[in-house]
Amino acid sequence: MHTPLCKHAEGHPIAYMEHGVAQGLAGIIMTCHSPMPDGFSSRVRMFPEQFAEYCAMVQAAADAAPDGFEVRLGLESDFFPGMEGWLAELHARADFHYILGSVHWHIAEYMDAFWHGDPFAFQKQYFDHLAESAETGLFDSLAHPDLVKNASPPDWDFDRIRPHLEKTLDRIAKTGVAMEINTSGLNKSYPEMNPGPRLLGLMAERKIPVVVGSDSHTPKRVADGFGLALDFLSAAGYEMVSVFRHRERVDLPIAEVRASLPFESDNPD
Question: In what helix (H) or strand (E) does residue 202 lie, and over which residues does it extend?
Fold first, then answer.
């Protein structure tokens, strides 16, 4: 979940905290877009000089939270070849609970570097970068793993890309890095969660840990789709879902998580 510092979200972390409390959660982790150097993708993220302000905003929400509700400091950091040193230094600047790694195919810098007019080659390059991001050791989990299917929905052919996906997941599984099921995918041009059910099944076969995220850019989306995400995880063969504290993964039984929420499922069936 994000803050106005990224320039495309709304609401102070306190508002996200309040909605999390109303949704019956035990806590939230703020994961606004990381600052990057030299103006890189600056239109959709905080400036480097705003990093301290971001940490202070999250702390203000933690201070305002009711007893028993946690507000944890996280970050959504972009993987882009050559930026590894910058991110390593950035991640050491605060006591983070969770670092979510993202490959954002749609930012101008990524398109300029890697789009050459072939949608299938672009998809394969994206998944190569997803595996590389896990192999850096910089991230706890990988955000919206199949986000690239939104680049050109008519060109997304799961059966065609599947052999490449399997190689990607084999690489990720070796690292121990978790992956995210991102509920906001339901609102994108390819309207299914990221990842979709078939990719989620391949992840389950490899026992890759999974974290549920709403990718909230507005407070009202906190916990949106969580019940349905838990249903998808169970259908794919998962029995556990993960959270992070001080960058250490904790696995929780899905049945217990579902029982702890005031909503049983978002599945209309």
Answer: helix 197-205
4-260 sits in which CATH class? alpha beta
Answer yes or no: pTM beyond 0.70: yes
Amino acid identity, position 187: N
Question: Which residues are CB-neighbours of 99 under 8 A, at least 6 positions away?
Answer: 74, 75, 77, 91, 138, 139, 140, 141, 247
β-pairing, 70-78 vs 27-30, is parallel
Contact 80, 109 (CB under 8 A): yes
What is the C-alpha to C-alpha distance for residues 204 and 52, in angstroms, rounded to an integer? 38
What is the pLDDT tens value at each position of the chain, 269 positions in all?
999 999 999 999 999 999 999 999 999 999 999 999 999 999 999 999 999 999 999 999 999 999 999 999 999 999 999 999 999 999 999 999 999 999 999 999 999 999 999 999 999 999 999 999 999 999 999 999 999 999 999 999 999 999 999 999 999 999 999 999 999 999 999 999 999 999 999 999 999 999 999 999 999 999 999 999 999 999 999 999 999 999 999 999 999 999 998 865 444 33
Distance from C-alpha of 174 to C-alpha of 105, rounded to nearest angstrom = 24
Domain ranges of the chain: 4-260
Cα Rg of the chain (Å, integer): 18
Q: Is 109 exposed, middle or buried (0-12, 13-18, 19+ CB in 10 A)?
A: middle
